[in-house]
Specification:
Radius of gyration of chain A: 21 Å
Largest sheet of chain A: 11 strands, mixed
Oligomer: homodimer
Structural class of chain A: alpha/beta
CATH topology of the largest domain in chain A: Isopropylmalate Dehydrogenase
Distance between the termini of chain A: 37 Å
CATH superfamily of the largest domain in chain A: Isopropylmalate Dehydrogenase
Amino acid sequence: MRIALDAMGSDTCPVPDVGGAVLAAGEYGYHIYLVGNELQIKAELQKYDRATLPLEVVHAEQVILPTDKPGTVGKSKVGSSMHVGMNLVRDGKADAFVTMGNTGAAHAIATLFTLKRIPGVKRPALSGIYPVAGQHVVMLDLGANADSKPEWLVQFGLMGTVYARNALGLHNPRIGLLSNGEEEGKGNQLIRNTDALFRQLSLNYVGNVEPKDVVRGAADIIVADGFLGNIFVKTFEASVSLLANTIREEIKADPVSMIGGLLLKPTFQRVRKRTDTFEVGGAPLLGVNGVVIIGHGRSNAVAVKNAIRQAARAVEGDVINAIRIGLQEIQQVR
Amino acid sequence: MRIALDAMGSDTCPVPDVGGAVLAAGEYGYHIYLVGNELQIKAELQKYDRATLPLEVVHAEQVILPTDKPGTVGKSKVGSSMHVGMNLVRDGKADAFVTMGNTGAAHAIATLFTLKRIPGVKRPALSGIYPVAGQHVVMLDLGANADSKPEWLVQFGLMGTVYARNALGLHNPRIGLLSNGEEEGKGNQLIRNTDALFRQLSLNYVGNVEPKDVVRGAADIIVADGFLGNIFVKTFEASVSLLANTIREEIKADPVSMIGGLLLKPTFQRVRKRTDTFEVGGAPLLGVNGVVIIGHGRSNAVAVKNAIRQAARAVEGDVINAIRIGLQEIQQVR
């Protein structure tokens, strides 16, 4: 297994990126290309006893910043660690690319400049993997395609299914379409048209799912257009953060509460762990012609290691090929 | 002040409805028409010492159920307490209508069969009023119009502004457009077109607001199409409920947590109160030609009283007239 890792991806790069590579190389024996500024990477590597580890530094002149505009970096930073790392996959030198960097930039560079799309894919989608009701839920699109067509959303459902089955090990995963209810007058035109299209295909489609169904695990793949998906995730984060802050404020309001709060500290830590999206490590960019896993900019070394592990599982599950075949199958049915 | 109250609205009607009317008549001296099944209402009224209160029963043959389809009851239940109550407003016998009943039905009956639209209004909108950062935020549309046009959304902004100013007493309230961010590539076509239209008008429009801005009170009126607005509210509720359930489960996990949980019981009650949408009482149906306040089906008598008080404030603030004038003004500017 050969993984190209963007060593310049995380907010505090290359520290957690290199640390995660060292962990993954040691634990799983993967050959890892550390792509980025050679001097910085080598300086960071000197902190580790890594003589026997299969790590290889690949220099890249430029770095994509979290603040870079996705629309411009594809052309303006062709020497970036993202370009160089993805091209290792395109040229068959690596099996997958992993980055903790700018999600929008990774999407644009992969789709338009390096890996390009899997034949048949209309639009690649950004996904997220969330811990829900004790297992993982794949949600897509999280922002790549604000105005989507029913056919794209159906492809998102297929790609999510393949990933959930082949990389996450879910048996016969269920696709749900994010909506505001199943009753008459619910959904909008896009939802109704997409629902009709899903019903024509032999996918494991369970229909519209409301937000309350999503959080109780009524489906394993949640499909939405990029605008709605992005709002959903941001609303979830904002709500949880609002509630957590309100609890924190009220605990400080009187001494008895403060004692209760101290006793509940480990409890709140467990709650945080259960509702934290970090645990998974990263999420796939689905539809581009190569395995790409994008992790969070605030990842630590363990999260980077987990993202690398995820990329390897997607390669082992032959996700790209399975998407290509699956797309042909749903194309034939229609 | 004469209020027509749907006595058959709440889930346990007419108990909290009549109770709320008794409270409001006693506290504020409003003349309240109790509209619904005369026998049931009179039986319920006998529980109270209400000889001197300005309460009047108006019989209505039919009752709208929470499960009734909004699309059919307008015609199939013309004798409902909603029809009869709203017609009291239409005919100038009451100043406002208040119901704890089926929101979709109230919208359909008001818009198409009884009050109809204020001249110039493209689409009436369902609103919600939420406690945010210590004050009230008006959110609309919450579900009446799934596929909306920029011009409708701009009208929602104006109607929300008038309500926030004239009925809630907010000084120069700020309009925000719910989106997923202001950066390049954010929003969808509808958002971009609506944003452009808002910027042409002399409303106090502050631009796109993300979910995290909404919960920190970055705007006083949050505008969205009915599909997105409905998903936003449902996602908020689902997230808060998921987090609350997770905390509850983890508190039961060990004895120390359980003691901490007992000590925090009043704290959690305060948190609940601060994040509970019930406190406000109800929300206006904006754009129909008369004041209509819709409360929650699970309202108790105090919530019904609050909804009646809200309706009176909207009448005192001359909300309907102010919307009519405001619409003419923005129409002239364009």
